[in-house]
Amino acid sequence: MFNSILLQGMLGGGGASSLLLIGGMFVVMYFFMIRPQQKKQKEQQAYVDALKAGDKVVTIGGLHGTVTSVREKTVVLEVDSSKGVRMVFLKTAISKDSSAQIGE
């Protein structure tokens, strides 16, 4: 069977099957790579849009903190409650919820 495929390719036959194969590869790539990535981006955007004061988060740089205020494009994180250290980050720098990970 493999030899017949090679012979068809060398003789110039099978143009429709080659097109079908390329189309099938695109469909597989869409469902296994592109679509899950788009879904993950939408979930991340929804999470960032829903941030509120008191949420415990981790930034993309790995900094753990508690949201003290949310502005249009930025959030203020309290990173050391004993000293009152607060830092301002872009909302896009918030990676994930860390309420379960702090202390581990």
Automatic annotation (TrEMBL):
The keyword Transmembrane helix applies. It is a single-pass membrane protein. The keyword Nucleus does not apply. The chain crosses the membrane at residues 6-32. Signal peptide: none annotated. SMART domains: YajC (SM01323). PANTHER family: SEC TRANSLOCON ACCESSORY COMPLEX SUBUNIT YAJC. This is Sec translocon accessory complex subunit YajC. It comes from Arcicella aquatica.
